[in-house]
Amino acid sequence: MMQVIIDADLLIDHYLLKLEEIEYLEDIIENQKCEFFITQYGLEKFILLAGIIYSPEVANKYLSAIHNKITVCPVNYEISEQAKSLFLKNFESALEVACAVSMGVSAILTHNPQDFDGVNFPIWLVEDFLTPLHLEESLHLALGVAWIENICLSNLDTPSFYPLEVVDVMNYRIRNSITTVMEFFVILKQEGCQYIFCGELAKKYKYSESKINNILLDLQTFEMVKLQSGKISIQKELINADNIFIANYLAKFLNQHIVVQKLYKQLKPNENFGREYLKNLIREVYPENKYKKSKPLKNTLPLLFDIYPDSIATKSASDYVSRMLGWLLFTGILEKRSKEIIARPAKVSGGKQKGKLLEENANQLIDVDKSIKQLDLFQS
After folding, report:
1. What domains appear along the chain, each with residue ranges and CATH number?
2. Among residues 10, 109, 313, 316, which one has the fewest Cβ atoms lying within 10 Å of its Cβ?
3. SUPFAM superfamilies of this UniProt entry (predicted)?
């Protein structure tokens, strides 16, 4: 059964302040297909406010009802110290994160995600949750059909594709290295962050159209750019963002990914593992035989969805490990300890390589912006 910590402010706003925008909360709790937790601090805050707004008698009734539906997570000295190390503006939110990590729950349910900025832990909104049975549907990004309609590639029939390849963040197979995506993203910023046509980029920077399409699919899936009628624009909040901000932004999406969910479920904070462990996990998530038995499909966009048996983006688990590992290190979801040793970070704030790109071949850390300036490829 999935385990989730409920943000105390969510209960306060719904039950005490009666905010309509979180009307689904009661259905979620009553569903009882999840095990819900609240921090001891959060519960005490709720009961105190209930007594002030209504009466001590009503507060006691709330207390009894909460105990029947929600488990209280005790807050001790160790939890408090871990919360302090997060340096969040809202200490209550930091306590919730510390409790979540300590108890190994799946996510924190809130309607104030900004209180958890910079934390590498799954943070879910009420409207995206609804019921655990529909969790995968609620995490889908509505970009599949819109992306196809707006790509503006001429003389192509309607493409055939596997839906999960396009719209499901949880199962999305990353197409490019984080280095490639960030290099392209910097180019977009250098172009002025406003709308620019795909064709213009292809000519100016000598990218093939298929390569641009692949990079755009990664950028769109993680909501870094918008694409309208063949024109690209950067999300406003990322225009002046530094690498750490971008890493935190991407982490919010990657924390939903099935590979990350499995890693965090199986590993404790500060626990080491090797590349072979990650490779086996990826092979489990993306069985190679599933694709080897498939037949080539016609009327597709070559390289875009990679559904040809001989040109699948994740041709093998070994192929995919380095690519996905770069993303997980950049976002701080994982940490590299040595050439062969990887770890789940000890700190919830993220691993040591957060905001950096790991050059796998040279085994060196490089700064994204500095590396861009050294590439003759991107000189006009």
Report:
1. 2-138 (3.40.50.1010), 144-238 (1.10.10.10), 243-378 (no CATH)
2. 316
3. PIN domain-like
